[in-house]
Design a protein that fits this description.
Elements lengths: L33 H6 L4 H9 L2 H11 L11 H6 L11 E6 L8 H8 L1 H15 L3 E6 L4 H16 L15 E6 L9 H8 L23 E5 H13 L1 H5 L11 E8 L5 E6 L4 H8 L9 E5 L19 H5 L9 E6 L4 H15 L5 H18 L7 H11 L9 H21 L14
Parallel strand pairs: 1-2, 1-4, 2-3, 5-8
Antiparallel strand pairs: 5-6, 7-8
Helix pairs in contact: 2-6, 2-9, 3-6, 5-6, 5-7, 6-9, 13-14, 13-16, 14-15, 14-16, 15-16
Length: 444
């Protein structure tokens, strides 16, 4: 599988005081191993957390920082950590890293794992200390072969240096960390489906409650966090809450920085660590360089295939959850897609819905049956064989598969781009309606 390169991230100046996630990156794109990582202040935050901070203090620091999940849902990380039971008798608990990055058009976590594997290891070590978790798993997308190799080497280096294992740095804290490669299912990005898969079960979402914080992996208290989320933890612990909050732009309700990007027919597709609150236009024009010659921006998605389409005039929106919500969709993963004017929206949506239909776990009827129905309907419109009822059928599916009507968030995410495409480009769907009168259905 060919994935985009990460060269464009090196076109901006990265500084420790403003780029907590990426300032350690090498210009040659090679991984930063333990010696170099420690020369660049690596594991200093872990030493501080282990020697000078109580578990509750780490949790409160992360809560006060305003750090939110970077996988797409945006739930406050410190609040999630606070859901773990305080009962000391429940001494078996797990920290899981969700590295099953299968959202189309998203590869931000891959960058961190391939080039800064020790940043994730350190983030998980500090987080495990806060959660009193003695074992951690990195649930990794199976196609990320380089990431698996680099993470395993980083774990081995950390073990040899006494940064993982028993009695870490003489603190009395034990933490073992393992890489677990998945079999390649989009649904494993849902945390309870991830837990089922880790246990060797079918990757179906679980009913909640109970939530993983109470009953998670192997029935024990479990916390699941995204790669980018965990990679923010060392800088927050090391530099403090006020510093972290100062990184975002005025007006942003999300704190810190975010890996953002643009792909499509833009001049400089890539990923950049940028402050929350930057406008989408700055991201599109100043970093991605706008559209290539001969192409015009038709619409764009702000953060993966499961987010709604927006128009060029929406580029004034600020890139944070509330800023994107104001223009009608979700920020998602923050890696945007530029759709050019040569693309037919019906064909694009048919392609997307084929992916989502294939990746449905089949656990609930609306998703299992509704998504293939959308594919069949879109395929008919794509070939000019649709009926006058087909657009209403698609809009009905957008409603029937919407939030709160399915077992998990897979189907709502799948139909969000469909609903927005019909809203903004209805004429392209109408063009697929057959002009040939169909024979009337005779009663039996």
């Amino acid at each position: 599988m060919t994935l985009p390169s990460f060269g464009p991230i090196n076109r901006i100046e990265r500084r420790e005081e403003t780029h907590p996630l990426t300032w350690r990156l090498r210009d040659d794109g090679q991984p930063v191993w333990l010696d170099e990582y420690q020369q660049k202040n690596g594991y200093a935050a872990a030493r501080k957390a282990l020697a000078d901070m109580a578990q509750a203090d780490i949790v409160q620091t992360v809560k006060d920082s305003g750090l939110k999940g970077r996988g797409g849902a945006g739930f406050p990380t410190g609040v999630k950590w606070g859901l773990m039971p305080a009962d000391e008798s429940l001494n078996i608990r797990y920290l899981l890293c969700n590295a099953d990055e299968m959202e189309p058009n998203t590869w931000k976590d891959r960058l961190l794992m391939e080039q800064l594997p020790h940043l994730l290891v350190e983030g998980m070590l500090i987080s495990a200390r806060a959660l009193k978790a003695y074992r951690g798993y990195i649930f990794l997308r199976g196609e990320y072969v380089d990431a698996a190799r680099n993470l395993n080497r980083a774990i081995d280096e950390a073990k040899a240096a006494g940064l993982l294992g028993k009695n870490i740095l003489g603190s009395g804290f034990d933490f073992e960390l393992f890489v677990h490669t998945g079999a390649g299912r989009y649904i494993c990005g849902e945390e309870t489906a991830l837990i089922n898969s880790l246990e060797g079960r079918r990757a179906n979402p679980r009913a909640k409650p109970p939530f993983p914080a109470a009953v998670g992996a192997w029935g024990k208290p479990t916390c699941v966090n995204n790669v980018e989320t965990l990679c923010n933890v060392p800088a927050i612990v090391g530099n403090g809450v006020d510093w972290y909050k100062s990184l975002c732009r005025p007006g942003s309700e999300d704190m810190g920085t975010k890996l953002m990007g643009f792909s499509g027919k833009v001049n400089h597709p890539g990923i950049w660590e940028l402050p929350f609150g930057i406008t989408a236009r700055e991201l599109f024009e100043d970093y991605a360089g706008g559209m290539k010659d001969g192409y015009t921006l038709k619409c764009w998605q702000p953060g993966g295939a499961g987010t709604g389409f927006l128009l060029p005039e929406h580029l004034e929106a600020q890139m944070y959850a509330g800023g994107i919500a104001k223009v009608g969709t979700r920020m998602g993963t923050g890696l945007a897609l530029a759709v050019d004017d040569s693309i037919n929206m019906v064909s694009l949506l048919r392609n997307m819905e084929e992916f989502f239909a294939r990746e449905s776990c089949g656990w609930c009827t609306p998703c299992r049956d509704g998504l293939p129905w959308s594919v069949k309907t879109l395929r008919a419109l794509e070939h000019g064989q649709g009926t006058s009822q087909d657009i209403d059928i698609l809009l009905g599916l957008v409603d029937f598969l919407g939030p709160g009507k399915t077992f998990c968030a897979h189907a709502p995410g799948a139909v969000e781009p469909l609903g927005s495409a019909i809203k903004y480009f209805r004429s392209e769907f109408e063009a697929g309606v057959s002009q040939v009168a169909l024979p009337a259905v005779q009663p039996a």
